[in-house]
Amino acid sequence: MTDPPIRLLIVDDHPIVRGGLRGMFHGDPRFEVVGEAADGAQAVDLARALAPDVILMDLRMPAMDGVTAIKELARVGVTARVLVLTTYDTDRDVLPAIEAGATGYLLKDTDRDELVHAIRTAARGEAVLSPSVATRLLGQVRTPVDALSARELEVLTLIADGATNREAAAKLFISEATVKSHMLHIYTKLGVNDRAAAVAEAFRRGLLTLDRR
What we know:
By secondary structure, this protein is α/β, with parallel strands linked by helices. The chain has ten helices and six strands.
């Protein structure tokens, strides 16, 4: 049985960029572009009306910028994953977007295959970061000893056992957004970019063991 296409909302103030992204997914049965928005305010309205799975969000736009839109999407209860797609990877862009609740952060020079993989990863609720962004977050969040907190270790243990972000949140009585935040901190502390690598690195460092139960 074929999975339904991932529903995409494209948000960018440049029509050429929106057209290029739409064309990139045209004819690919794995994706359906359900709408386009030229600013954050339009994005919030369309997201509520169209229920996309993933929102490709630019950051610097008129009327309402991307970070403000991400916060507003969360406030009004939109459950779509937000994948930032922007030209900028400075601290003043990256950190606020991640803290606002973005599931991923990519730069516009990302090639099609990487973008497709990122969208599918984001649709599953898993964080995805471009290498330069991961490096920047590593420098910001890294502690002197890179020690995982007790809560981060609890989250990673559940992930190692195969739990999704939502399942981990339910078991720990915290929000899914909090689990995602913990996972981003884990990635940066362990110097990895995804869940599988985080689990593998935790075993390598002895933070997780096969007999941990």
